[in-house]
Amino acid sequence: MEQKPKPYMNPYLAGFLLGMVLLASFFITGRGLGASGAAKSVVIESIGRVSPEYAQKHPFYASFFATGDGRPMKNWLVYLTLGVLGGAFFSGFMSGRAGLKIDKGPRISNRTRLIMAAAGGFLFGLGSQFGRGCTSGAALSGMATLSSAGFLTMIAIFGTGYVIAYFFRKLWIS
Hints:
The chain is mainly alpha-helical. It is 69% helix and 0% strand.
């Protein structure tokens, strides 16, 4: 029997709840949220496993192995990201939306859509490292502390999205 998907949460309520999660993060951990730090931890841990001599000699990588217990994968952002993924799967199953599906416009193939999504994800991840944070880490957490960098990051992320969407809009509109 197929389960009928439940409607999405009210976006204003979802935004309020996200703000409460961010407030709880500051209260409990003394830090804001962030997901790109988890990806960085995975990359650094991988480099340390593949070439431990190189990771120890390179000052950037060595600094991650020198702090804490010396294991970047034990960073709290890794556990936060795993919890977000687990929560997303749980929410998808509970609302009847779990499954494999490619959201795309009528003028783009599945292959092109997946390549574009991977390229966009790579560029966003790279940009988050240059900008020292992603949407949640730099923009939301930065804005919550009234940091001008947080506001600039949010403007840059959404402004770039609007500009790039102009060039690719024909792929999504029938």
